[in-house]
Amino acid sequence: MGLPQRLILTLLSIYLYSATVVNTQQEFKIQSVELIIEPRNDVTAGTNVTLRCHATVSTSTGKGLIREYTILKNDKIVYTKTIGSSEDFVYQLHNARVFSTGLYQCKLDIQGDTKLSKAQRLNVQGLSQPVLHLNTNVVNEGEEVQATCIAPGEIGSFIFFFFDNDEQISRVEELSNQAKTTFRLSGADVHKIHCSYKIRTAEDTFPSTKSNNVTVSVKELSITPELKIFPDSTIYEGDHLNISCSAKNVHSSSEGYKLFLSQGTKLLRTGNSTINHNMVAVPKASEALTFDCRVVVRNVEKYSEKKISVVELFSVPSLTMSPTEVFQGQIMTLTCNSDRFASQRINREDLEYTLYPSKNLPSSGKPGVFNVKALQNDFNYTCSAEAKGIKKDSKTLMIRPKVHVSALKISIEDKVILKKSFTILCQSNGSLPINYTLFKDNVQVGTKVIRERNRQAVFMDVINEPGERQYRCEAKNSLHSNKTGSSQHLSVNVIVPLSQMTLAVIPSSLKISEGKELYFICSVNGTGPVTFKWYRTGSVVPLQTNTTTETYSNLEIKPVSKNDSDEYYCEASNGANKVRSENVNVQVFMAPWKKGLIVVACLVLLLLLVLLLVASMLNIKSKRVKVDRAEVSVWSKRKPETESDDEISEVSNEPNVEYTEVVHARSTDPARVPLRKGTDTVYSELQNSPNGAADPPDYGSVEYAELNREQFEISQYDPQVHSYQDLPEPVD
C-alpha cells in the first residue's frame, strides 16, 4: 500500500471519528421515513425502477449524522448501506422483472434509533417468451432427444415444462433461467415440441407464454411382434391350447429386445426369443380369453393381441333345497344341478355330482338329489359337478332351520276398565316371522305379524258390558304347515268405575254424648276390590284405610270424646276412578252423669264454703274473748259489799277510786310470747263503794294496760300463755 493510500485512510478515519464525536454530542429526532417508487408502482418487465428513501431528521446542530438505510422486500432484507449525508437514499432495480414484484419498505437507523416507512407495492408485468433448442430434428423410434428451454432475462425460481403435441412429457425445477431434459419419442410420426415456464414469488406464480415449436421426425422400427394360438377354430372347455409369441424383422445389427406374453393382466412368460406356452382352455364368465404378445426395444413397445371364445363344457352347478323353509329335525331335499352342457362333447349322464359335507347321507336314487335331516342350528352345504376332468363347485347354501313357536304367553298390560281401551300382549319363542291371532270368547279379534326379535304382538280391545271375558292367543311361523301354538285362556274381570257414593252415620243424630259409639258407613256402586280411606277435614293422613272386595266399609269410633267433634268424609278408589263423599259434621256433647256430678260438686263446694265461713266467725269471736281476759292491767269496779237496803240507797254516785301497784315477776316459760326484760308494773284502778268495800272485778269492761310505758297489740298475746291465773287478786 502506497503513501497516498495510507494518507487517505488516515484522513477518512479522522473524519469518521470526528463525526462520531459530533454525533454523540448532538441531539436528533427521526420525524418520518418515506419510500417512493419511480417512475411508478406498476411497470412492465425491463423497466428501470428506482426505490427512493426520503427521511426527515431534526438535529440540534444541523450537522450530518451517520445513517444506515435498509431496503426490505416482503419483510426480508434486500440491501443495506451506511451514508453520512442527509440526501435521499436511492436503490436501483435495473431491468425489473416479474420476480421483482412485491411489497417494499425503507428502514432508517441512526445510533440505534430506527423508523420504518409504509409499505409500497411494486407490480412488474410481462414475462419474456421462452426459447427451445433440440439437439436433433430426426430420430429413430426409441432414441433419446435432448431439449433446452431458456427464459431470457428472467430471474427467480423457475418451473419449466416440455410438451409433445400439447402433451406434457417432462417437468424441471431450476433457480436459473434455463433447464435441460431428455426424452424418447415413440410412433413413426412428426412431433412438435415446445416449452413454457412459471416464476414463483412469495405471493403467487406467474406463467409465461409458449415457446417456439420445434419439429422432430421419428422413424418407425421395422421389428413387429407375432402371436399364434392353436387350435384356431371352435375351442371347448378343457381343450389344450398352444400359444407362441415371437418378433419379426429382427436384424443381427439391431439392439437387444425382449418379449412378454400375457393373458389379461396375468403375465404368462417372458424371453429374448420366441416364447411357447401350453394351457387348458377355461372359459371366463361372459368374457373371451385375451392374449397379448409384446416386444420392447429401446423403451419402444409394440404388441399384438388376440381374443378367443371358449365354449363351456357344462355350467356351474346350483344347489337348491326343498321345501324352501325347514324346521329343526325335518327331512329336506337338496338338489345339485348344472343347467347347461355341451352336447357335442358330453352327455348329461357324464356329469357326476357330490354334496359337501357328504357324511351319512341317505341315497335318493337320482343323480344330484340328496335327502338331508335339518340340524338344530345353522349349517352350510356346497356341491360339485365333474366331467372330463373339469370340476366346478356351486355357491354355498346356508340353511337356517326354523324353530316352531312355543311357550306362547298372553298378558294384559293395563287395568281393564269398562268402556275403556286396554292392551293385550302376546309373545312366544320361535323363528321369525310369527303370525299372532287374538281371540275373545273364541271370536277372532285381530292378527299381527312380528318380524323383529324380542318384540311382542300388541292388541287393543274395549269391553262395553260388565262381566268376565276369556282371551287367548294363537301363533304360527310356518307357511307350509298348519301347526300352530296356542296360549292358555286369560280370564278378564271388568272394573266398573265407582259412582253414587253415600256416607251414613250411626246414630243418625249428628249430636252425640261422650262415651257413646259412633259408626260411619261408606258405600258406592261399582266393582271391587275397593280401597276406602277416612279423613278428618284439614288432615291429609287418613284415619283408617281399608281394602275390601265389598262396595262398602265402615269406620268405628268408640268411645267418643269432645276431641272427636269435627267434619269427616271418606274416599273410595278401585283402580278405575276415585270418588269422595260429602262432609259430615259430628258434635260430641258432655255425658249427663258428668253434668250431675258437676252440680253435686258445686253444691258440696258451696256448703263447705258456708261451713268454713261460720267456723271462721266463731273462731274470731272466741279469740276476742280470750284476748280480753288476757289483759295484764285493768280498770275494775269493785262490787259493793252486801249492805242493807238503806245503805245501798245512800251510796254516792261518784265512785271511790284508789290505785294499787302490783309487781309481777317475769315468766320464764318458753312457750309464751316473749316480753320485755325486767319487771312489769301494773296499775289497777279499783272502785270502792262508799262504804269502803271494794267492788268485784268486771272482766267485760274496757281495760287499759301499760307495761314499762310501751303499748302492745292485743293480738300479740296468746290466750293460753297469758292465762287468767296470772292476774292479781283485787286489793282492798
How would you characterize this protein structure?
With 732 residues, the protein is mainly beta. The chain has six domains: 29-125, Immunoglobulins (Immunoglobulin-like); 131-219, Immunoglobulins (Immunoglobulin-like); 224-311, Immunoglobulins (Immunoglobulin-like, Sandwich), CATH 2.60.40.10; 318-399, Immunoglobulin-like, CATH 2.60.40; 406-494, Immunoglobulin-like, CATH 2.60.40.10; 499-589, Immunoglobulin-like, CATH 2.60.40.10. The protein has three helices and 54 strands. The strands form 14 sheets. Strands 2, 4, 5, 7, 8 and 9 form a six-stranded mixed β-sheet that branches. The protein is flat and about 165 Å long. Residues 16-24 and 630-732 have low confidence and may be disordered.
How many β-strand runs? 54
* Distinct helical segment count: 3
Low-pLDDT stretches = 16-24, 630-732
Could you give the distance between the termini?
Answer: 185 Å
Percent of residues in beta strands? over 45%
The description of the largest β-sheet is: 6 strands, mixed
- State the CATH class of the largest domain: Mainly Beta
Q: Give the proportion of residues in helices.
A: under 10%
Average pLDDT metric: 81
The total tally of domains equals 6
- What name does CATH use for the topology of the largest domain? Immunoglobulin-like
What value does the Rg take, in angstroms? 73 Å
Helix/strand class:
mainly beta
Q: Which descriptor suits the 3D outline?
A: flat
What would CATH call the homologous superfamily of the largest domain?
Immunoglobulins
CATH architecture of the largest domain: Sandwich
InterPro entries: Ig-like_dom (IPR007110), Ig-like_dom_sf (IPR036179), Ig-like_fold (IPR013783), Ig_Fc_receptor (IPR050488), Ig_sub (IPR003599), Ig_sub2 (IPR003598)
Pfam families: Ig_2, Ig_3
Protein name: Platelet endothelial cell adhesion molecule-like
Keywords: Disulfide bond, Membrane, Signal, Transmembrane, Transmembrane helix
